[in-house]
Amino acid sequence: MATTSGEEKKTNNDELIAKISEIDPDILNMGSADVRQRIQLLHNEIGIMQSSINTIKFTIERNTHQLKENKEKIKLHKQLPYLVANVVELLDMEKEEDADGSALDEDSQRVGKSAVIKTSTRQTVFLPVLGLVPPEDLKPGELVGVNKDSYLVLEKLPVEYDSRVKAMEIDEKPQEDFADIGGCEKQITELLEAVVLPMTAADKFGTKCEFHFSHPIS
Fold first, then answer.
1. Which residue has the higher pLDDT, 216 or 53?
2. Measured distance CA(42)–CA(84) in Å, rounded
3. Contact (CB, 8 A) for 105 and 133
4. pLDDT > 70: percent of the chain
């Protein structure tokens, strides 16, 4: 029993010596007052680091909230219908120098690509900020969809794009049928006989279906 206690004591002493050897020799040579001062400095550094952590957390929360707002704005701006426009010219903007000491506006301080577009409403607009499409993806003469208020470029459009067709596209198949329409029985019957049945039951109407249009009475 005594042997076991002695072995445990020796093990504890070895661990204590190992921990002491890891301590900076300068600290071991310090007096009590110097050690207390060193501890106080460490506490101050911990406080500063904790303050920095809190600042970073606040910045992350603020940026996350701002990112969410910006995504909502982008979603709102990308709602159809777009205003169709042509890219007239792409320009390289250079930062203007304040030679006479007068104040310069924000747009004059931007660098990078800008664009001149012409909308389908015959307006020519200069865009210091293009929008959501990278400038390297745009070429003069291309069709783009722009926001109808800010004119920011939202996306490239195919050459055959027609805003009138886009506005009449059906997003969902209608669920209503003729039974939901009241007071137009005669017109519905005529429509079924003249248009619907010749297409859905063409075999009952012969091999050739003709539509005749009468000239308006002048």
1. 53
2. 63
3. no
4. 70
